[in-house]
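Re: [ENG-882] Designed sequences occasionally contain unexpected residues at chain ends

Forwarding the minimal case from QA. Structure tokens:
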């Protein structure tokens, strides 16, 4: 962690550092410690953007418009600016100085946190909990080196070159892959596990609390040496050149780790140069590249896409046998000889997986026979994917947080598109234009009624204040509950279901939705796809999803509802979609009741949660005899009901979109 921070201090162009780790591992202490030992910097006195007098081309508009008066220089320590989790866009980028506008009648830009962080550190604790929109703004400024503000009649830009440091606890959620890639380096930190190290830590903390000044003097020489080494490294940096052999090795490392794009190659190159300079050398060696790659690649490394399993071989048409396979309750076929062989002797050409035989079957044990039949599993390929057409869901008046690119919603945050104004509700997001229009008709009378010492250009009263009504786009949470029991594999219905889920994930990657999948089979429900937008993880989990076994519908409903309820606890204003793909049959309960009665009872209780939109897709085969259990399940859930025969993969997605 300390090395990564030092390398960013030597070359801020590396792009910052993301520190993953447990609470209480001195992440923020390390950042402030580095800032304290860095040499003082020269700035233009009084400039809110800390412009560098030695770089006239990078001056802000205020310093450039200074006229003929010479700029006054000053020196100060490097700043560490903390970004709070509730930061708004105006707080980060800056906005109109409302007080100045009221008093003078002119607009003036009020700088934000990015201006204050110029030439210093921008520290974001728990960056994974920050709104994606704010993170995007910060990363854009970090990459370009300047902040551009264009809104409310203001067009302004100023330098914003800072060292970005983000910290996060992975247990509280991860960043999207796009955001992870924008951090130059990433390190993982954990607490000290050595007993002597932990004891020394306590002693040092006690020494500092008892006498901070003596403690600082104790390490003053070491810090001075490190500060001097950083300055020398900055001077050496420009003279370090990489050979063609080193660049080839960097390229091979990036290709082997299957990174996306070319940012990793460039960041490794800059990190290698900074590391070589820090070691006070001018020639780069292979060890430097390996050390730099360990800081650059871990958060960019991607697993290769797993090969698609071949489709199961077609079996001869046998109507009576298909009828028996679709009715798990009445199997009449005997296990074939392959099922009695050792596992390593079985034919795996159709990707069939069988558990060890529980024992010899007896004719008087029909339940055991059914269990043995239900152990047969198949892994089906992922169906064809497709482009999901653009959807414009209906808006409502609920104020929501979050970010994304799908559902347009109103927001109470100071971010998003300003669509209209409304009476003030104390949120502080002042609509200056609407406020001035409201106060304008009364200016003459208020000026006559004012005291002589009131030299205001505008007279605004509390009843004139108007606030902005903003709109923004947010993502949605979509949960698939999929019946993966033996009946689903009879006609390979999982192929289309997998294709639909993967297509929805591809669209979610672009629209910033979150998707999860729960399956139920063999007496239990499993979260196969945790809430995610990672297409690599989705493809891997979908490709390995087996089909076979009994049908614990109740367990699936409970598992899926719990996952959705957790999402609602985190975001009570969310609009999750719960899609159930099943024929409605149930032959295994989690309690003492009949399986189907138990499932319907759970469904009725789930239907009382009106914040969740339920959709039931019926997979029951067409035929003379139909049980209609999926339709009854939809009625109990107050859900929309569709038959699988009337749906194709693209139609399934359209139904999802219409109900978001």
């Amino acid at each position: 962690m300390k090395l990564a921070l030092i390398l960013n201090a030597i070359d801020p162009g590396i792009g910052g550092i993301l520190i993953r780790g447990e609470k209480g591992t001195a992440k923020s202490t390390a950042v402030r410690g580095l800032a304290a030992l860095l040499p003082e910097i020269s700035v233009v006195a009084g400039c809110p953007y800390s412009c560098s007098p030695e770089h006239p081309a990078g001056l802000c508009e205020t310093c450039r418009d200074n006229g003929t008066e010479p700029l006054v220089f000053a020196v100060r320590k490097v700043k560490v600016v903390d970004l709070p989790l509730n930061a708004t866009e105006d707080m980060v980028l800056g906005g109109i100085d409302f007080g100045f506008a009221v008093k003078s009648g002119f607009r003036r830009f009020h700088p934000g946190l990015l201006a204050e962080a110029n030439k210093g550190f921008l520290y974001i604790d728990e960056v994974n909990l920050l709104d994606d929109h704010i993170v995007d703004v910060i990363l854009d400024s970090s990459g370009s080196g300047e902040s551009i503000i264009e809104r409310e009649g203001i067009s302004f830009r100023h330098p914003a070159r800072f060292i970005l440091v983000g910290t996060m606890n992975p247990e509280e959620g991860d960043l999207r892959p796009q955001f992870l890639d924008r951090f130059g380096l990433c390190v993982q930190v954990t607490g000290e596990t050595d007993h002597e190290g932990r004891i020394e830590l306590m002693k040092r903390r006690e020494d500092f609390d008892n006498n901070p000044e003596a403690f600082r003097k104790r390490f003053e020489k070491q810090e001075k040496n490190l500060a001097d080494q950083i300055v020398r490294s900055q001077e050496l940096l420009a003279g370090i050149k990489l050979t063609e052999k080193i660049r080839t090795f960097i390229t091979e490392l990036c290709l082997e780790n299957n990174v996306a794009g070319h940012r990793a190659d460039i960041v490794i190159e800059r990190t290698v140069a900074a590391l070589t300079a820090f070691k006070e050398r001018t020639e780069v060696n292979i060890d430097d590249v390996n050390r730099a790659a360990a800081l650059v690649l871990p958060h960019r490394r991607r697993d290769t896409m797993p090969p698609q399993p071949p489709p199961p071989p077609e079996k001869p048409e046998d109507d009576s046998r298909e009828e028996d396979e679709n009715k798990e309750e009445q199997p009449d076929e005997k296990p074939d000889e392959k099922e009695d062989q050792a596992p390593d002797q079985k034919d795996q050409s159709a990707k069939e997986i069988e558990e060890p035989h529980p024992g010899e079957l007896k004719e008087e044990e029909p339940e055991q026979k059914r269990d043995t039949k239900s152990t047969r599993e198949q892994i089906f390929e992922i169906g064809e994917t497709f482009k999901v057409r653009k959807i414009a869901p209906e808006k409502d008046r609920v104020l929501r947080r979050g970010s994304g690119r799908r559902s347009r919603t109103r927001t109470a945050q100071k971010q998003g598109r300003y669509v209209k104004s409304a009476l003030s509700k104390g949120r502080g997001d002042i609509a200056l234009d609407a406020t001035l229009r409201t106060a304008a008709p009364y200016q003459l009378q208020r000026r006559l009624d004012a005291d002589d010492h009131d030299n205001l250009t505008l007279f605004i009263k509390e009843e004139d204040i108007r606030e902005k009504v903003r709109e923004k786009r947010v993502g949605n949470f979509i949960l698939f509950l999929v019946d993966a029991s033996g009946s689903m594999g009879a006609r390979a219905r999982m192929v289309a279901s997998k294709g639909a889920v993967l297509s929805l994930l591809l669209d979610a990657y672009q629209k910033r939705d979150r998707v999860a999948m729960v399956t139920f089979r063999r007496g239990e429900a499993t979260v196969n796809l945790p809430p995610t937008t990672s297409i690599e993880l989705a493809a891997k989990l979908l490709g390995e999803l087996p089909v076979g076994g009994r049908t614990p519908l109740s367990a699936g409903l409970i598992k899926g509802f719990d996952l959705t309820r957790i999402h609602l606890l985190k975001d009570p204003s969310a609009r999750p979609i719960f899609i159930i793909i099943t024929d409605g049959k149930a032959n295994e309960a989690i309690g003492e009741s009949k399986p189907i009665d138990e499932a319907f009872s759970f469904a009725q209780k789930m239907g009382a949660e009106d914040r969740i939109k339920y959709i039931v897709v019926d997979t029951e085969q067409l035929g003379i005899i139909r049980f209609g259990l999926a339709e009854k399940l939809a009625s109990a859930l107050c859900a929309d009901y569709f038959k699988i025969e009337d749906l194709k993969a693209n139609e399934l997605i359209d139904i999802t979109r219409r109900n978001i």
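QA comment: On inspection the terminal residues look reasonable. The longest helix spans residues 493-511. Proposing we downgrade this to a documentation issue.
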